[in-house]
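Let us work through a complete example step by step.
Step 1: write down the sequence.
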Amino acid sequence: MSIAQLSYDDARTPVLVALRRELHQMPEVSGQEEATALRVAEFVAALDPDRLVTGLGGHGVAAVFDSGQPGPLVLFRCELDGLPIREISTLAWRSRVDGKGHLCGHDGHTAIVAGLATALARRRPARGRVIMLFQPAEETGAGAAAVIADPEFASLRPDFSFALHNLPGLPLGAAGIRPGAFNFASEGLRIRLEGKTSHASQPENGKSPAAALCALVAGLPELPARMGFDSDRALVTLVHARLGEAAFGIAPGEADVWATLRSVDDDLQSGLMQAARDLALESARVHGLAIDMGTEDRFAACHNDADATACAERAFEAEGVSVVAVDKPFRWSEDFGLFGSVSRSALFVLGAGVDAPSLHNPDYDFPDDLIPLGVRLFERVAREMCG
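Step 2: predict the structure and record it as tokens.
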């Protein structure tokens, strides 16, 4: 009989599906996950963990199952937050909060980690400790940093960390992982150019930022190629631009450009961000404009540890999971990458279906069939490391 059959009761799956659908109806965006965290804490508290931490890094929840014996501290992390996107599905469990939705699958990831807690409550680890971390604010990149900076995290600092993310476009239940680079680093750069407005009939009496704006719109996306990198290593995506006001009588005096910069590793990301700042400063100088810059949504690159990756691969094999080749890192970001700075970590993907709506689409819904599989894979890893 397999480990999963011994320690995880598939009869619990309906309970986890019900939890997932309940959370799906009550999405809360990054930093506002108070009710979600309360519901999750209530669920795991009923499992009698050896320690339950709330308010971690904001609204984070951590449940600890402690063997009382020496051994590794292994962390399994999921996310609590939804997105500021209006869901358009007609599902019975669709979002009840207008303008917000669980359209990335964090509700499903949470149900999986709650299922792991259920399995460990039935049979505790034989050595070391296992932590279930329900993390806030993943979508903004702020959550992992806040959790790690929280003084409570010092006693929870793991030796190994694991996470999964569902991925539409892959066959349902197929898994993908690779050692080394797995997800890009990313950061948003805001640039404001300030000149001087004038009457539209006398533009010479003002100082328009139009030419500088055009230079940045053309130049920012070209930066990676100018630095010698193709899109498998770095890219810059323009996400917003604005010039002056929508008025025919006013020559513009200010402009905004927003761009998201992504790179395969943190060092390259730092260089790309500096090159973008330098380009903006030079454009402002040439055109005699004032400039202000800021950054948001910073995500560290995710690099998978070789040993942690191998452990996940053994779990795939034991569960008979189909494995798809991941030949290069994903260009989307995941703030789980920051846990690689405090532990040996691995993130893997589980296919949500070839024809499933993409992540962040307004009609996306996490496939419930992934919940028992995700629980079994995480439990395989936990039992290998902690018995």
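Step 3: interpret the result. Residues 3-181+301-386 form a domain with the Aminopeptidase fold (CATH 3.40.630.10).
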